[in-house]
Input
Amino acid sequence: MNPVLYLASASPRRRELLTQIGVSHTVVSADIDETAHAGEAPHDYVQRMARNKALAVWEKEARLPVLAADTTVVLDGLIYGKPRDRAHALEMLTHLSGRTHEVLTAVALAAARGIELRMNVSSVKLRV
Output
């Protein structure tokens, strides 16, 4: 089956979800700087990341629509990025334990008609 879109993500879970719903796709990595800007609100950050990933792939592979997403964990207004290693992951889980945090996911779709952007916010509480 020919792909109907490019997925600007190396996430195995995102690939799996598209496969489960029967969306044929090709993975194309989006090489962007994922550094948060000074004073940037987490909601703005996650939307900027999804948009920039989609546009980065669209600019080099404009034959098919490009689907991109970014997910960020936020606690007390601070963005928790990807852990550097196992020790850092355990430290992050300790901070999140017993507290409610937000999980922000932005999804962007770039195509010839422009770019569409949506965001979901979930509140999550980890058990102690």
